[in-house]
Structure formats: C-alpha cells, structure tokens
Amino acid sequence: MSFLRVNMTTETVQWEDIPEEYSLLGGRALTSIMINNEMSATVAPLGVENKLIFAPGYFTGTPLINTGRLSVGAKSPLTGGIKESNVGGTVAYSLARLGIKAVIIEGKAVGDKYFLLNIEAKNTASLVSADNLKGMRTYALAKKLHEEYGEKKSITCIGPAGDFQLHSASIQSTDLDGRPCRAAGRGGLGAVMGAKGLKAIIVDRQGKIPSEITDAVGFQKAARAYAKDVQNDEFSGQVLPEFGTAVLVEPINAAGAFPTNNARFGQFKGIGKISGETMARVIKERGGKTQHKGCSQCIIDCSNEFVTEKGEYVTSSLEYETIWAMGGMIGNDNLDAIARLDFLCDDIGIDTMNTGAALAVAFDAGYREFGDADAAISLVEEVAAGTEMGRLIGNGPNAVGKHFNHSRVPTVKGQGMAAYDPRAIQGMAVTYATTAMGADHTAGWVVDKNLEAFGGTVDAMEATGQVEISRNAQIHMAAVDSAGICDFAQSGLATEAGINNVFTMMAAKSGQVFGREEWTELGRRVIKAELEFNRKAGFTKDDDRLPPMFYNEPLPPHNVVVKVSDEQMDSTFDFLRNTP
Amino acid sequence: MKVCVKLFGTLPAYYPGCYPDMGLDVEIPAKTSVAELVDLVRIPPEQVAIVAINGMLAKGNQLVPEGAEVKLFQPLNGG
Ligand code: SF4
Fold it and tell me: How many domains does one find in chain A?
C-alpha cells in the first residue's frame, strides 16, 4: 500500500511507501498518531502547516462487512485540538482498493486558487484547477463531477460553508447512489479543506488491488462468523434497517435525556411527531425507503430516503442526532422541516449537530422563538449566503453565544454536544468532558449501560461507576475506529466469541499475535496520542469540564445536575498522562 | 389494577397490529414490579432494555403504580 502526499502550495503529488511504524495502523490510529508525530500542535488550523489526513480503516478493503469507514484527521479550527471525524459512503473502500492507505493534504493553495484532486489509480493522481467551483453546493457539485468524470467515482467534497472556512463546515462524501449525504461533520474539517484550496477529491471506484492479508483463509472464516452475528442480532438485523438510528428518539426522551429547547428540558412535548416509529410510517406512506444502503460493504442498511408527500426526494440518511439537533433542541416538531434542514446542511456542507446547537443558542438568546422551523431554515440558508448571521451560525454555538452575550452554550472544547443530556446520562458527561475531541458521543457511547432496566451496571443520574465505563468505552471505540468497523456493526463484537473474531482477523491480516491485550493497547495508544497533542496545543484539565449550565441548572423531569466531580473527570485518563 | 403498556421499536411485533402510540391495557395485581409486568405481557426480558413509567426512567425491581403508562424499549446500540 502507499501514502499519497499532496502539497497544495507546490501543486505536486507524491507516492510514498508506508514507513514501518505505520504499517499496522489504519483509520483513527493512523490519522491521530501521524498528526501527533508529524505536526507541531501549535500550528494554525487554517494555516499552511496543518495537515488534513484521510485514512480508511485497517480492515477497509478486506472481505469483512461494514468496514467502509474513513477517518478524517487534522487540527480542528472548532476545538483547537486534534480531531478525527468518521464518515461512510464509498470513498474509504475505493481508496483501499486502489492500494492507498492514506491521503495526506499539506500546504495551502497560493492566492485564491482552488483545486480538485483526481485519484484515478495507484500512482495516478493529479490536481485539477477548480477556481470556478468555489461556492458550489455539494449536490450540484457531485452531479457535475459525475457527469464530467463518470458515474463510477466516489466524491468527497466541501460546500459553501467549507469554502467560507466556517468552523462547523463538514466534509461530505457520496453514498452508493452518488449523493453527497454522508458527512464527516464534526470539528469543522471542511474549513481545513477549504483553507487548503481543495474543493473535492474524486476517487475511482473500480480499483481491484486486494487487501494484504497474511492468512486469508483464517480471515475469511472469522469474517463470515462476524457477518452472521451482525445479521442475527436483533438491533443491527431488524431495528436499524426498519427505523435507522431514529429508533433512539423515544427511549432517550423517555429517559428524560433528550435535550430540548437548548437543553432547558430533558423531554420534548412533540416527541411523538418526530420519533423513529413516526418517521418510518411517514416514509412508507409516501413511498420513500426506510431501508437504504449508505456505505460500501454494508449489510445493515441503517440509512433511509425521506420523501415529500408527492414522493419527491428530500434527503437521505435522516439520523437520530439530526432529528434531535433540528428537532427537540430547537423546539421543532415538524418532521418535514427537520428533513429539509438535514438536506440543507448536507448541501451547504455543515455539521447538523453543531448547527442545531448554534440555532438553539440563538433562539435561547431571544433571536427567534423556539419551534420556529421557518426561521431555522432561513438561518441555515444564510450560512450559504454568507451573511453576518449566517457566518455566526456556521461558526457554531460558541460564536453565537459570544455574539449575543449569552452564557447557555452547550459545548465542550467549542464543539456542540450530542443528543444525550449529560445530566440524565452521567456517563455521557464523562465522555463529553474527557475525550480529546470536544463534546462527542461516538467517542464513548455509554447510553445503554446507563439506561438498562435489568442488570444495569450504573445509575444514570449518579456519578458512581461512570468514569470507568466511559474510559473503557472510549478505549474500545478508539480501537473500533482504527479497525474501520461501523459503529452499528458492533453487535458482531458484543460477545466474547464476537470480539475474538475481530482479534482473529487482526492477527490474520497482520501476521502478528493479537488478542484482548493488543486491542486495548491499540485503543490506549490512540487516545494517548490525542491527549498528548492537545496538551502540546495548550489544553489543560480545565478544558475537561462541561459548561456551568450542566452543573447549575437541574434538568426536568428528573431535576438532576451533573454530579461527576472535577477529580473524577481528571481520573479518567490520568494513567495515560503519567506514563512515558 | 389497570396499567397501560406501550411498546416501541421491535417490541410491537409481539402483538401484531399494535402501534407504539396505542398501548395495551393490562390488568395487574397490586405491588407488581417492572420485571413481573414484562413477564405478564409475555415479552422475553432480554428483549426489554429500557423502561419508563409515567415518563420517568425505571429499573426492573421498581413497583408499577395504578394507572401508570409504562413504555418498553428494546436494547439500544450505537449513537
Ligand atoms: S450501518 Fe449505516 S452507517 Fe454503518 S455501514 Fe451501514 S449504512 Fe453505513
């Protein structure tokens, strides 16, 4: 396999052999460890020295299902720290099948120059001038590029928000239908891409270079067993295809953990109108698709296709987090408006979660009323228009809070929190506060362990035990993100036999001994690199805190505040900080 | 005493024709716990992960009050 290193300043591309130290890494392990090794932590995120790295997971390109995941890493303009943002679609698989382990974008285009990176085959890639594409929205861009370069291309691009270098800008990637609806949304990495002068990466989808696997027979056997487990699991086999992640809406609301009206409440009155069950019924009645394949090699199909009453396409992959961000968080119970907002965010190239939180802060400050869906839509349109208010919304909740001098801003390290209130699920308080990523739910999702009615390990509204479960989840997820396994295919590794399949595949591919110890070590190594980078960038323990509102304002209906103490937060990764 | 049980996600499949918002009216003895109620409605306990009584999160050993609205959810995964 090779690295493709692209220098935007000199407009050159270079193919490199993989250095020994990176040969067994993929996905998040590769992006985070490389960034920590290769780059000064004090560089300007939108400057010439930041590096933007795209890396398929370690398993991507192998016969293992649900491994079409791409890690995108850089120093984030939103948080000022290291970032790994994960996206599906077709790009990761396409890169892996061209024998590309990572694409590293360096430098910065001179003046106002803008480019496309066209990757046709291994050893064949070029920068193509694209000055005329600046400002173009992602759906129009993907269509144009497919017309010009052919249908069998994967397109990873930015929209107007990335062109403006706004701090919530996403990187959008095309799904199997060629629509740019999959988002590496978090951390404003679209702004980094815009700052480099790179509008899109076009990757040929017809690569056939087989993945390097030491023991192919052993790998196949474990991969088949893994696929069977995922298929047989009720959640990944039945629930996700039917409802997608939106199935979480009702239970999280029932748990009083659905942040509503900028996290003033834990339950939303309009929940029945925006639940996963309602969404599935509406989609079916209108002739849309509840089940839709979003990513290469997927057998779960958690994506969907939302349509209007007339059956016209609105958006694809309407997910739980977006239903919350553009629904409960801004007091909006209109599902059609949520779907429209999801589409607009994809089209303009902006993170739905950060944008929902930014709108919520603006509404909370009295700029508009909660529940005003039309105002939300026109404000998101303003992001693309580049108005002053549009720029504030596009720069995220902190920018909006500062503008209105409003202190109720639900962010950690500048990133808007996700759809689980940390007061009602205290394990998420630990994850939001301590991950290097800023308030991020995928870094360590401990919702299940907090809410379980039977044999639940912790009390969701107490601090006891939360640090440990969040720490373990974060270390585990860092390894999952490095392997390139989709979050939702984790049913395959939920049991002892399941995780052993993963270890077997790791060993079979690498030709090295691999077991639980190596798995945990991989996760720890990734987190250690991320924390180290952030420390060098100037982060201290004081940054591992939630905003005051979560400690001071009891959240109805349970009327609880975050009880995890500062000392407990600091104990999460102390052992990593202290080891050499 | 009577309670109303609402099923979400895959759980309505145990009662064909039952939609989440409809709910089942169930007669239960006083001092019935959440776990016993799940048993009474004949849903395998491993299929139920989250329970809410009158909009508040509940644990398996909690007692179900008269007239309660009990929501049952299947196990969750992932984020
Ligand atoms: S389950 Fe969803 S996110 Fe995961 S690979 Fe399939 S379509 Fe993509």
Answer: 1
Give ∠ CA A7-A8-A12 in degrees, rounded to 5: 50
- Lowest-pLDDT range of A18-22, A102-106, A313-317, B55-59: B55-59
Chain A interface includes B78 (CB < 8 A): yes
Enclosing domain of residue B56: 2-73
Q: Does some domain include residue B17?
A: yes
Q: What residue ranges line ligand 1, CB within 6 angstroms?
A: A 66, 68, 88, 293-295, 298, 300-303, 486, 488
- The mean pLDDT value of chain A amounts to 96
CB spacing of B76 vs A454 below 8 angstroms:
no
Instruction: Decide if A24 is inside a domain.
Output: yes
Structure confidence by residue, pLDDT tens digits, A384-402: 999 999 999 999 999 999 9
Contacts of A312 (CB under 8 A, 6+ apart): none
Residues of B in contact with A442 (CB under 8 A): 79
pLDDT per residue as tens digits for the range A360-371: 999 999 999 999
Task: Identify whether A460 is part of a domain.
Answer: no
Is 70 exceeded by the pLDDT of residue A456?
A: no
CA of A90 to the centre of ligand 1 (A): 11
Phi, psi of A243 (to 5 degrees): -115, -15
pLDDT of residue A580: 45
For A101-131, the pLDDT digits (tens) are 999 999 999 999 999 999 999 999 999 999 9
| Closest CA in chain A for residue B20 | A277
**Complex prediction ipTM:** 0.90
Residue A390 maps to a domain: no
Chain centroid to CA A6: 24
Q: How many domains does chain B have?
A: 1
With 0-12 CB in 10 A as exposed, 13-18 as middle and 19+ as buried, what is A40? exposed
Touching check for A269 and chain B: CB below 8 Å?
no
> A250 and B20: CB-CB below 8 Å?
yes
Which of A39, A74, A45, A71 has its CA nearest to residue A58? Answer: A71
In a domain, B9, yes or no: yes
CATH number at residue A41: 3.60.9.10
Q: Check if A326 contacts B (Cβ < 8 Å).
A: no
Contact A277 B20 (CB under 8 A): yes
How far is Cα A162 from Cα A168, in angstroms, rounded to an integer? 8
A-interface mutation test, from B4, B47, B56, B76, most A Cβ less than 10 A away: B76
- Residue A26: domain span: 2-204
- Is A355 within 8 Å of A415 (Cβ atoms)? no
Specify whether the CB–CB gap between A142 and A202 falls below 8 A. Answer: no
Residue B78 covered by a domain: no
Nearest CA distance, B71 vs chain A (angstrom): 8
The residue type at A69: R
